[in-house]
UniProtKB/TrEMBL annotation:
The keyword Nucleotide-binding does not apply. PROSITE patterns: HTH_TETR_2. The keyword Cytoplasm does not apply. It holds the Pfam family TetR_N. Residues 28-47 bind DNA. It comes from Archangium minus. This is TetR/AcrR family transcriptional regulator.
Amino acid sequence: MRNPGGRRNEILKAALECFLARGFEGTTVAAIRARSGASTGSIYHVFPSKDAIAAALYLEILKQYQGELLRELQRHHTAKEGIEALVRFHLEWSQEHADETRFLVVAREASQVVAAETNIVEQNRKFFGEVLEWLQPHIRQGAVEAMPFALFFSVILGPAQELLREWLAGRTKVDMRAAIPILAAAAWRAVEKRPAPPPK
């Protein structure tokens, strides 16, 4: 008997390939069926619609990325190591999973994915909560500047995310391997708490 989880993964893998090649509107359940080798009935047994496939795919990729990032972050016990590792992981994972990353970028505003907003918000809430749990002791110990959490992520990942978008679009020839340590070090400098300057 076929593993239902295996069938689901086959459908999602085929859907990713179809969505990237054809776009959301150009992709049909028939195209996903043909690429996955699944029967129409087995697809509808797992997913009620093409929109449900797109939403499930987005959540699945997001869950994989966030889970692996958290495991990497929790390996590091100093603020500097952890923040540099976070940036490094973000860029390395995105290169190794370029199709998945491209889908996350282009699909976030798609109506098919926006329909799953409640689930996305809940998944992000758990993820950011765990990152904040790792970060707070470093703020209390005076290693990291206190700032709104949304600003923290923008500061440390903003430059890396911008370079990544350019790389995914083929608009930059920057060597990403060489850029990673530079961006990781810059992220740490941006949030490192420095002693207050002496009064003049």
